[in-house]
C-alpha cells in the first residue's frame, strides 16, 4: 500500500480501481491517508470515485460474461438457487448498485448485476452515485470538504 500511496492521486486512482474489482483490497485507508497528507479534497474525491467506478464496471462486465452453466458446474450452485437470486436482483434492480461500496458484499452484488444482465445505463449511474457518496463521506469525516 505504501507504493500506491507514494504515487499520490494516481496511486489512489489505481488502488480504488483494484479495490472495486475482484482484488480483495480496501481503498478506504489509502483514501484517508492521501487525503490527510495532501489536502487535495477535490483531487482525491475525483481520483478515488473514478477509479472505484471503473473497477466496478470491470466487475460488472465479468459478471456479464458469465454463463449459468459455468456457475452450476464450477461453483455447484443449482439452477433453482440461481433463479432465486435472479428474482432478488430483479426485485431491487439497479438500486442495488448504490451499495456497491460495501466491502465484499458490494463486489458480489456488482458481479450479480452483470450476471443477471441489469440495465447497464442505470446501473452504471447508480454505481457512480454510490461510489461518490462513499468518498464524500470520508471527506466529511476527515473534515476536509
What labels would you give this structure?
elongated, 145 residues, single chain, mainly alpha, 8 helices
Tell me what you see in this structure.
- There is one protein chain.
- With about 140 residues, the protein is mostly helical.
- The chain has one domain.
- The protein is built from 8 helices and no strands.
- Helix 2 runs antiparallel to helix 3 and helix 3 crosses helix 8.
Question: What is shown here, in short?
Answer:
By secondary structure, this protein is mainly alpha-helical.
Distance between the termini: 24 Å
| pLDDT < 50 runs, ≥5 residues | none
Describe the global form: elongated
The secondary-structure element order is: HHHHHHHH
Instruction: Outline the biggest β-sheet.
Output: none
Number of strands: 0
How would you describe the oligomerization state of the chains in this entry?
single chain
Amino acid at each position: 500500500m505504501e507504493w500506491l500511496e507514494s504515487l499520490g492521486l494516481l496511486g489512489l486512482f489505481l488502488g480504488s480501481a483494484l479495490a472495486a474489482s475482484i482484488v480483495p483490497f480496501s481503498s478506504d485507508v489509502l483514501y484517508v491517508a492521501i487525503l490527510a497528507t495532501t489536502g487535495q479534497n477535490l483531487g482525491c474525491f475525483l481520483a478515488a470515485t473514478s477509479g472505484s467506478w471503473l473497477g466496478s464496471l470491470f466487475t460488472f462486465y465479468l459478471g456479464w460474461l458469465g454463463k449459468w452453466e459455468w456457475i452450476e458446474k464450477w461453483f455447484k450452485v443449482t439452477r433453482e438457487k440461481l433463479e432465486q437470486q435472479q428474482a432478488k436482483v430483479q426485485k431491487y434492480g439497479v438500486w442495488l448498485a448504490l451499495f456497491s461500496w460495501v466491502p465484499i458484499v458490494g463486489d458480489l452484488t456488482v458481479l450479480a448485476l452483470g450476471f443477471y444482465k441489469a440495465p447497464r445505463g442505470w446501473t452504471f449511474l447508480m454505481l457512480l452515485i454510490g461510489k461518490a457518496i462513499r468518498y464524500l463521506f470520508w471527506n466529511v469525516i476527515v473534515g476536509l470538504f
